Amino acid sequence: MLSCDICGETVTSEPDMKAHLLIVHMENEVICPFCKLSGMNYDEMCFHIETAHFEQNELERSFARINTIQYRTSDNRKDNTLQCRMEVNSSVHSAGASNHPKILAQSLPNDGTLKQKAFYSENLTEARKFLKSKEKECDLSKIKGSIYKTMYSPPECPFCGRIEDCSQDMENHVKTKHANLLDTPSEVHACSLSTPTWPHKNEPWAQNTSLSRDHDQPLYDCPMCGLICTNYHILQEHVDLHLEESSFGQGIDRVQCSRDLELAHQLQQEEDRKRRSEESQQEMGEFQKLQRQYGLDNSGGYKQQQLRNMEIEVNRGRMHPSEFHRRKADMMESLAIGIDDGKTKTSGIIEALYRYYQNAATEVRRVWLSTEVDHFHSSFGDKGWGCGYRNFQMLLSSLLRNDAYDDCLKGMSIPCIPKIQSMIEDAWKEGFDPQGASQLNNRLQGTKAWIGACEVYTLLTSLRVKCHIVDFHKSTGPLGTHPRLFEWILNYYSSEREGSPKVVCTSKPPIYLQHQGHSRTVVGIEERKNRTLCLLIFDPGCPSREMQKLLKQDMEASNLKQLRKFVGNLKHKQYQIVAVEGVLSSEEKVARRQASQVFTAEKIP
């Protein structure tokens, strides 16, 4: 459907529109379609309609299309003409509508059809500013619909961009300021701003208008959409619109990309915070687990655990209340004097082993035993964490029987576990092993903290007992075994293997043996007839009733199973031993205290 820009009447085709324009508006007098007023030119009639009949005009043409631009080009470049058809909703005009009349340039092609052409610069931004200013001047606050917002701009000079109030002023401006750019004064310019004149198709000059233009004026192709323009200023403005549109789209893409990047960054930060929180909680849980495992969770020490476990035994009916109170009294007395009550001690085992190897053990070629040593096992108070203290008691029980250590251990008895903790703290205060003290918070009393080879070495050195640590830090045999450990212990106990008796009771103290999670005491070594080696080990985890079976006169080989450890039985990743070598002088003690600032050990291999 096509709508007449003069009277608003709609027709179905372009020939009908042509006939309508020729009959109604060209051959006849211009008459107002609402009040039948006549006797005026086209511009005056437009002003009359849009001021006197604003409401009727708006109702009749409120649905007209706006900004519809059609372009058509022919195969022959000389016949190419810019075909622009713009239907403007003329219902939206303020009281100053005469300031922006329709700007049209029309021509009649060779095929005899009527085409309406509009060449003008449409700047929507300036149009909106113009409408807002006119709305304020005329107080047309009610005209704010969607049709009002789409009104085209006032006439703009295609050469210099100047904007005039009406087409007549713009035409005068172009003729005076840009006369040199016009081909001929009578030519209908591609951007003609005068009132349209509709030539009759039979007039020869009208039929040759576009052809004359093609011959006299160059054409310019838009490099972006292929539109053909007759003036390079119009082409430049047209291309600028393309670039602005492209820039606007790219700006939107950049904004969207920036928002997406910001959102991704926020999500990543939240994920990192969540991950760090989970890792922190996991680390805290593992740390607390290690604290409980190594007795650093402030849950009490030897005394508290002893009382708690005895109460459990009473509640389960395994201990009589009178026995509970008797043991509690004995414990309090032992803690008061700092001496072990001996309830977990088993003595005489080395002597019993000597008798057994003399009379039996035909599979054994030779055996070397340490000096006499007592076995101590864990009690209610230190079960699960006291192995290091119990092995120190075994080692000390052997040293106290050796006259060579009377000078440094004179007057000592086997201390209880809280007393051993106090002795290690005193050694730290003297300056021994500051790094180890720091790891245990410089405190052992009242805790269930584990001790290892370093703490036993520190305590023995503070008592002037000469010893050293040997670190078997990795496997030296197949399947994770440590044959070098067995060889070292054999060399420690034996001075000459050839020509010696089957059973040798040496003057060497037992060896403190530490590995991950547990410690034991080596009291001898066997060399079997097949040349394999077997260690004899006291384990503080073995109860007294089992150790006392070794004291029987008719001891069997099966009773030694809990003592014997072959090469294939020791497969922990790392082993450390503390071997006693003699007595330190005061000067040597000071030197070793200084050396313990950075703890070192002999490594094998």
From TrEMBL:
InterPro entries: UFSP1/2_DUB_cat, Zinc_finger/UBP_domain, Znf_C2H2_type. It is found in: Cytoplasm; Nucleus. Residues 220-247 form the C2H2-type domain. GO terms for molecular function: cysteine-type deubiquitinase activity; zinc ion binding. Gene3D superfamilies: 3.90.70.130, Classic Zinc Finger. It is an enzyme of class 3 (hydrolase). Residues 268-279 have a biased composition (Basic and acidic residues). Its EC number is 3.4.19.12. Pfam families: Peptidase_C78. SMART domains: ZnF_C2H2 (SM00355). Keywords: Acetylation, Cytoplasm, Hydrolase, Metal-binding, Nucleus, Repeat, Zinc, Zinc-finger. One of its GO terms (cellular component) is cytoplasm. Residues 268-290 are annotated as: Disordered. Interacts with RPA1 and RPA2. Belongs to the peptidase C78 family. ZUFSP subfamily. Deubiquitinase with endodeubiquitinase activity that specifically interacts with and cleaves 'Lys-63'-linked long polyubiquitin chains. Shows only weak activity against 'Lys-11' and 'Lys-48'-linked chains. Plays an important role in genome stability pathways, functioning to prevent spontaneous DNA damage and also promote cellular survival in response to exogenous DNA damage. Modulates the ubiquitination status of replication protein A (RPA) complex proteins in response to replication stress. This is Zinc finger-containing ubiquitin peptidase 1. It comes from Acinonyx jubatus (Cheetah).
